[in-house]
Amino acid sequence: MDNTPPTIKLFIVDDHDTILKMLKKFFERKEGFQVYAFDSGEACINSMNLNPDIIILDYELLYGGGKLNGRDVVDKIQEMEQNPKIIMLTGQENGKAVLELINKGIRDYIIKDENAFTELEDAVDEFIKQKFGFENGEEESS
User: Fold this and answer.
1) DSSP run (H or E) holding 111
2) CATH number for the 8-139 domain, one of 2.40.128.50, 3.40.50.2300, 3.40.50.970, 3.30.2350.10?
3) Cβ distance 19 to 59 under 8 Å?
4) What is the pLDDT of residues 10-44, one digit of tens each?
5) Which pTM value belongs to this model?
6) 93 or 129, which is more confident?
7) Per-residue model confidence (pLDDT) at position 66
Protein backbone atom coordinates (compact mmCIF):
# COMPACT_ATOMS: atom_id res chain seq x y z
CA MET A 1 0.00 0.00 0.00
CA ASP A 2 1.29 3.45 -0.92
CA ASN A 3 1.72 5.66 2.16
CA THR A 4 2.54 8.75 0.12
CA PRO A 5 0.33 11.69 1.08
CA PRO A 6 -1.93 12.80 -1.78
CA THR A 7 -1.19 15.92 -3.76
CA ILE A 8 -3.78 18.53 -2.87
CA LYS A 9 -4.96 20.75 -5.72
CA LEU A 10 -5.48 24.18 -4.25
CA PHE A 11 -7.07 27.11 -6.10
CA ILE A 12 -6.52 30.61 -4.74
CA VAL A 13 -8.86 33.27 -6.13
CA ASP A 14 -8.21 36.88 -5.12
CA ASP A 15 -8.26 40.15 -7.04
CA HIS A 16 -5.52 41.74 -4.92
CA ASP A 17 -2.26 40.79 -6.61
CA THR A 18 -0.14 41.07 -3.44
CA ILE A 19 -2.42 38.79 -1.42
CA LEU A 20 -2.68 36.34 -4.32
CA LYS A 21 1.12 36.11 -4.64
CA MET A 22 1.66 35.82 -0.88
CA LEU A 23 -0.90 33.03 -0.50
CA LYS A 24 0.44 31.19 -3.53
CA LYS A 25 4.01 31.35 -2.19
CA PHE A 26 2.85 30.36 1.31
CA PHE A 27 1.11 27.18 0.14
CA GLU A 28 3.73 26.27 -2.48
CA ARG A 29 6.26 26.02 0.37
CA LYS A 30 4.12 23.37 2.04
CA GLU A 31 4.71 19.81 0.91
CA GLY A 32 2.00 18.12 -1.10
CA PHE A 33 0.28 21.09 -2.72
CA GLN A 34 -0.27 21.90 -6.37
CA VAL A 35 -1.27 25.58 -6.26
CA TYR A 36 -3.15 27.52 -8.92
CA ALA A 37 -3.72 31.28 -8.59
CA PHE A 38 -6.50 33.25 -10.28
CA ASP A 39 -7.36 36.94 -10.16
CA SER A 40 -11.00 36.51 -11.21
CA GLY A 41 -13.92 34.21 -10.59
CA GLU A 42 -14.21 33.51 -14.31
CA ALA A 43 -10.64 32.21 -14.45
CA CYS A 44 -11.39 29.89 -11.54
CA ILE A 45 -14.61 28.59 -13.12
CA ASN A 46 -12.83 28.05 -16.45
CA SER A 47 -10.25 25.86 -14.68
CA MET A 48 -12.63 23.66 -12.68
CA ASN A 49 -11.78 20.79 -15.04
CA LEU A 50 -8.58 20.49 -12.94
CA ASN A 51 -10.81 19.25 -10.08
CA PRO A 52 -9.48 21.27 -7.15
CA ASP A 53 -9.71 19.80 -3.66
CA ILE A 54 -9.78 23.22 -1.99
CA ILE A 55 -10.63 26.74 -3.18
CA ILE A 56 -9.61 29.79 -1.17
CA LEU A 57 -12.00 32.38 -2.57
CA ASP A 58 -12.14 36.14 -2.05
CA TYR A 59 -15.67 37.27 -1.20
CA GLU A 60 -15.71 40.51 -3.21
CA LEU A 61 -13.46 40.12 -6.30
CA LEU A 62 -13.88 43.77 -7.27
CA TYR A 63 -10.63 44.45 -9.12
CA GLY A 64 -9.69 41.32 -11.08
CA GLY A 65 -11.42 42.39 -14.26
CA GLY A 66 -14.15 39.77 -14.00
CA LYS A 67 -17.84 40.21 -13.36
CA LEU A 68 -18.33 37.40 -10.84
CA ASN A 69 -17.98 37.94 -7.10
CA GLY A 70 -17.26 35.16 -4.61
CA ARG A 71 -20.95 34.37 -4.07
CA ASP A 72 -21.44 34.01 -7.84
CA VAL A 73 -18.45 31.69 -8.06
CA VAL A 74 -19.87 29.49 -5.29
CA ASP A 75 -23.19 29.30 -7.16
CA LYS A 76 -21.48 28.33 -10.43
CA ILE A 77 -19.36 25.66 -8.74
CA GLN A 78 -22.45 24.20 -7.08
CA GLU A 79 -24.23 24.15 -10.46
CA MET A 80 -21.30 22.11 -11.82
CA GLU A 81 -21.96 19.55 -9.09
CA GLN A 82 -18.37 19.66 -7.96
CA ASN A 83 -17.67 19.58 -4.27
CA PRO A 84 -14.34 21.19 -3.44
CA LYS A 85 -13.80 22.59 0.04
CA ILE A 86 -14.42 26.33 -0.28
CA ILE A 87 -12.82 28.71 2.19
CA MET A 88 -14.16 32.24 1.82
CA LEU A 89 -11.69 35.04 2.42
CA THR A 90 -12.77 38.63 2.95
CA GLY A 91 -11.54 42.01 4.07
CA GLN A 92 -14.66 42.76 6.08
CA GLU A 93 -16.86 41.25 8.74
CA ASN A 94 -20.42 41.00 7.50
CA GLY A 95 -22.94 38.96 9.48
CA LYS A 96 -25.47 38.92 6.64
CA ALA A 97 -22.84 37.61 4.20
CA VAL A 98 -21.74 34.91 6.66
CA LEU A 99 -25.33 33.73 7.05
CA GLU A 100 -25.80 33.69 3.28
CA LEU A 101 -22.65 31.60 2.84
CA ILE A 102 -23.65 29.18 5.59
CA ASN A 103 -26.94 28.67 3.74
CA LYS A 104 -24.86 27.81 0.64
CA GLY A 105 -22.88 25.23 2.63
CA ILE A 106 -19.72 27.31 3.18
CA ARG A 107 -18.42 26.74 6.71
CA ASP A 108 -15.10 28.58 6.62
CA TYR A 109 -15.19 32.38 6.44
CA ILE A 110 -11.85 34.03 7.21
CA ILE A 111 -11.19 37.74 7.68
CA LYS A 112 -8.09 39.19 5.97
CA ASP A 113 -6.25 40.31 9.09
CA GLU A 114 -3.02 39.47 10.92
CA ASN A 115 -4.36 35.98 11.73
CA ALA A 116 -5.58 35.11 8.22
CA PHE A 117 -2.64 32.94 7.14
CA THR A 118 -2.74 30.90 10.35
CA GLU A 119 -6.51 30.48 10.08
CA LEU A 120 -6.25 29.47 6.41
CA GLU A 121 -3.52 26.97 7.18
CA ASP A 122 -5.60 25.51 10.03
CA ALA A 123 -8.72 25.22 7.83
CA VAL A 124 -6.74 23.56 5.02
CA ASP A 125 -4.98 21.17 7.40
CA GLU A 126 -8.29 20.22 9.03
CA PHE A 127 -9.82 19.46 5.63
CA ILE A 128 -6.85 17.29 4.64
CA LYS A 129 -6.98 15.43 7.93
CA GLN A 130 -10.74 14.77 7.58
CA LYS A 131 -10.68 13.82 3.90
CA PHE A 132 -7.43 11.90 3.60
CA GLY A 133 -6.36 10.99 7.14
CA PHE A 134 -3.13 12.94 6.68
CA GLU A 135 -1.89 15.88 8.69
CA ASN A 136 0.74 18.44 7.70
CA GLY A 137 1.97 16.29 4.83
CA GLU A 138 2.42 13.19 7.01
CA GLU A 139 0.22 10.14 7.42
CA GLU A 140 -1.72 10.27 10.65
CA SER A 141 -0.33 7.76 13.13
CA SER A 142 -2.62 5.38 14.99
Assistant:
1) strand 108-111
2) 3.40.50.2300
3) no
4) 999 999 999 999 999 999 999 899 999 999 999 99
5) 0.87
6) 129
7) 79
The enclosing H or E element of 5 equals: none
How crowded is residue 59: how many other Cβ atoms within 10 Å of its Cβ?
Answer: 25
Closest CA to 111 of 123, 129, 100: 123
CA 81 to CA 96: how far, in whole Å?
A: 25
Distance between the two ends of the chain, CA-based, in angstroms? 16
Q: List the strands of the sheet with 108-111, edge to edge.
A: 33-38, 8-13, 54-58, 85-90, 108-111
pLDDT of residue 2 exceeding 70, the answer is: no
- Domains of the chain, by residue range, sit at 8-139
